[in-house]
Amino acid sequence: MADIASLQSEILATVAGAADEAALEAVRVATLGKKGSVSALLATMGSLSPDERKFQGPKFNGLRDAVTEAITARKVRLADAALDARLASETLDVTLPSRFENSGTVHPISQVLEEVVAIFAELGFGVAEGPDVEFDDYNFTRLNIPPDHPARQMQDTFYVAAQADGDSHVLRTHTSPVQVRTMLNAKPPIRVISPGRTYRVDSDATHSPMFHQVEALVVDEGIHLGHLKWTVEQFCKAFFEIDQIELRARPSFFPFTEPSLEWDMRCDRRTPGKITFGTGNDWLELGGSGMVHRKVLENCGIDPTKYQGFAFGFGLDRMAMLKYGMPDIRSFFESDLRWLKHYGFQPLDIPTLDGGLSR
Ligand code: FA5
């Protein structure tokens, strides 16, 4: 009968000396495999007398258990060592800049949004948000556009099926409902912008069913049209990155502002595909604005005899098109990688007024 103790120490030494997982597997097959030395020993149990089996059985089983345990432990150590070696050889310097050809780009809408937020942050405005699926009440009624009012026809609305709670909802047609949300939740002084997605049943080269607006709202004592003009001017100078601009205000109509104005900026479009701001005989439409209607202040719990406000809402996609020269609004949302590579921005070029907005 083999000397079990010396066989065990011989096998355990081989296990300890296995340099890698393949060598260890070879030891396992040579010992515990079908034709392995330990398996062969266990197979002799059947031919032993009951007394011998009683005596040798625990020794054989002990040998098998010791070998199995040693192989398992060695396997774990070898796997740990292999992982350590891999980690040491595959170090990655996360401080290195990414390679341009591999990196994605920032979508022009995200870029323009960041630019607008940076500009208004300098002017002391906070950012307010509202949901895309909005209460009909906030999108229209509290903005002085009651049901059946003809002004609802000004915006081609996507209506949402009636909800269980009985409230009617729409896909917000403008960012003005965020004015309502803000005034219902905060007391003046209020100074916020609310950039975001908006929806209308509309589609051509300059209209998209989903587009973006930025709303600005200021409510305080003694606010007047001069504040509105100054803010629009500062914003346009910073956004288009020019010192000399000329703005023109046209009378307009929005149910939620009184008086209402639309702003245009002087520009030169004589050279096809090129637009120059500050000179020329053309005018570029920026968007609508006005002094917040007293009924809207009242509808939002603000005393119109004490407080006044101004608001404006500009189209972000249109502003991106003008600043960066995209001819068709629909291409913003087609996810064409070639377009995104061409018009996209470097992810780490975060717009700031000091560092430059659009570098
Ligand atoms: C409004 O939406 C008002 N809420 C703006 C406002 C806010 C007025 C605060 C007064 C006070 P208007 O419908 O004109 O106004 O839209 C504003 C801008 O959104 C437009 O000048 C245009 O740039 C952009 N816009 C409107 N419809 C679309 C569209 N389908 N696709 C792309 N841009 C659009």
How would you describe the overall organization of this protein?
It is a single chain. The strands form two sheets. Strands 1, 5, 6, 7, 8, 9, 10 and 11 form an eight-stranded mixed sheet that branches. A three-stranded antiparallel sheet has the order 2-4-3. It is an alpha+beta fold. Helix 5 (108-122) crosses helix 10. It folds into two domains: 2-89; 108-343, BirA Bifunctional Protein, domain 2 (2-Layer Sandwich), CATH 3.30.930.10. Helix content is 39%, strand content 20%. It binds adenosine-5'-[phenylalaninyl-phosphate] (FA5).
**Number of domain modules:** 2
CATH topology of the largest domain: BirA Bifunctional Protein, domain 2
Task: Output the radius of gyration.
Answer: 37 Å
Name of the level-1 CATH class of the largest domain: Alpha Beta
Approximate strand percentage:
15-25%
Class of secondary structure makeup: alpha+beta
Total E-strand runs: 11
Q: How would you describe the shape?
A: elongated
Average pLDDT over all residues: 91
